[in-house]
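Each field is listed here:
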Amino acid sequence: MPRAERPAVGDGFGNGGRVLYAACALSQFLVAAGASVVTTMGPALREANGLRASWLPWAVLVYVLVLGLLVLPLRLLIRRTRPLPVLILGLWLFVQSSVALTLVSGAPAFLAFRAVQGAGAAALTATALALVLALDLDGQRPDRLLLVWSAVVVAGFGTGLAAGAVVGADWRWALWANVPLTATAGIPLVRLLRSTRRRDKAVGAGAGSFDGGGGGVGVGQGEEAQDAAA
C-alpha cells in the first residue's frame, strides 16, 4: 500500500490530538526534571537521608539507569497490548515514589525509591513515545514537533536544577509538586485513551455485524498494521 494510503492511527483521537500531545510533553517535562532535581538540593537532602556527598550522583544515576533499561521493553509491551495499562502504572509509580522519597530515612531506602521513580518515568516515556508517534496533528511537520519535544525536555532538566537549588531546606516541596503536576498530565491522557478504547469497541461491534468480527485499531496495533502495509 502506498505511504499516502496508510491509515492515520492518530485520527482516532479526533480533536483531542493537541491536548494529548501537550499532556505527553508535560509528562516528559516532569521526567526530565525528576532526573536533575536532586543534584542541587544540597546539604538538607543529604542530612535527611544520610547521603554522603559522594553518593549524591548515584541518586541521579539510579534513576537514569532504570529509565534507560526499561523504556524499550515497555515500548515493545505497548506495541503488543495497549498504552493505557502502562500509562496508569507509570503514573502510580512516579507519584508514589515521589511521595515516598519525602518520607523515608536512610540512603538505601532513598536510592531504592529513586529506582522506582525511574521505573515510573520509563513507563511515562514509553507511553508518550507511542502516543506521539501515532498522532496526525493536521499535517504538522515532524521536525517541528521534534524540536518542541526536545525543548520541553531541556526545559524540564533545567527547571529541575533550578528548583533543587531554590528549595534548599524545604526540598520536600520539589518532590511533592510531582503529585499535582503528574495528575495534570495524566488525567487528560487517561480520559482520551479510555474514550478512544470505547470508540474502538463500538466500531468493532459495528464491523462485526457485517464481517463477523473485528475491533478498533489500538495505538500499538496500528503501528504494526502501518508497518505491514508499507
Remarks:
- The first helix runs from residue 17 to 36.
- Residues 1-12, 205-218, 224-230 have pLDDT under 50 and may be disordered.
